[in-house]
Amino acid sequence: xxxxxxxxxxxxxxxxxxxxxxxxxxxxxxxxxxxxxxxxxxxxxxxxxxxxxxxxxxxxxxxxxxxxxxxxxxxxxxxxxxxxxxxxxxxxxxxxxxxxxxxxxxxxxxxxxxxxxxxxxxxxxxxxxxxxxxxxxxxxxxxxxxxxxxxxxxxxxxxxxxxxxxxxxxxxxxxxxxxxxxxxxxxxxxxxxxxxxxxxxxxxxxxxxxxxxxxxxxxxxxxxxxxxxxxxxxxxxxxxxxxxxxxxxxxxxxxxxxxxxxxxxxxxxxxxxxxxxxxxxxxxxxxxxxxxxxxxxxxxxxxxxxxxxxxxxxxxxxxxxxxxxxxxxxx
Length: 331
Description:
The protein is 44% helix and 11% strand. The chain is α/β, with parallel strands linked by helices. The protein has 2 domains: 13-124 and 163-205, 3-Layer(aba) Sandwich (Rossmann fold), CATH 3.40.50.1980; 144-156 and 215-328, Nitrogenase molybdenum iron protein domain (Rossmann fold), CATH 3.40.50.1980.
């Protein structure tokens, strides 16, 4: 796989990088990405992942041959990530950085300033798709708040949906790209990376089959969620996502949007309003309470915490499948 060469232009962050690198070299100790992981062991590669799904893939593919750290700590909202000087330095010194351009502006900037040529932008192997019609333009709102929210999302993500990891087949593609990068960096262990990647791809393939079978026959294909993160999943499995807010998970919907969502819930016979573990469920609970509906978790898997319904990507995705089957009346 061709390495991605990033821009080495020096801007003010360059001084921060240099200072941080000196601090690391001086023996500050600890985890360079600030996530509590152990220091690299002799002979290990250093891999920095932007947030949990890419950490999961890197750990599974690398096995014992790399120390993998995440820039996004467990429980933190990755959209709003701000990097510490130590984390910025870790991007510059890592053997490999795995991230998705446009998802986390702070990571994009750190990569651009780092001069590190060994980076994998997953958007180069899984091209991002535009938001599905209606997912970011709430028809009928007609309010300044909605226009501002849409403009902010367009600025942050360029009108593209970043949540590719919620489609297991796309995660399999990313797995192959990580394998290729690690094999190029460390040819002596290429066979191990190939075996590990094949095993993970098979597990993701099984997960995809489970979703396909579980969602093949449902009473309703529409589902309502606070955070419009499930476009790739919905497209893959023939569902229709109705988002209360847009791509920004902590955005406040306007009264007009809430009324519109309530109308859509009644129109489609929706039984459940979904929320997620890293964001307050207040909006989902309010809408559900007004309509006498249930609430449940649909996890966008941007981080794993003690409140997650599973200890890793595959387990939480299976919990998502169970929730969707129940809400959709699937048989």
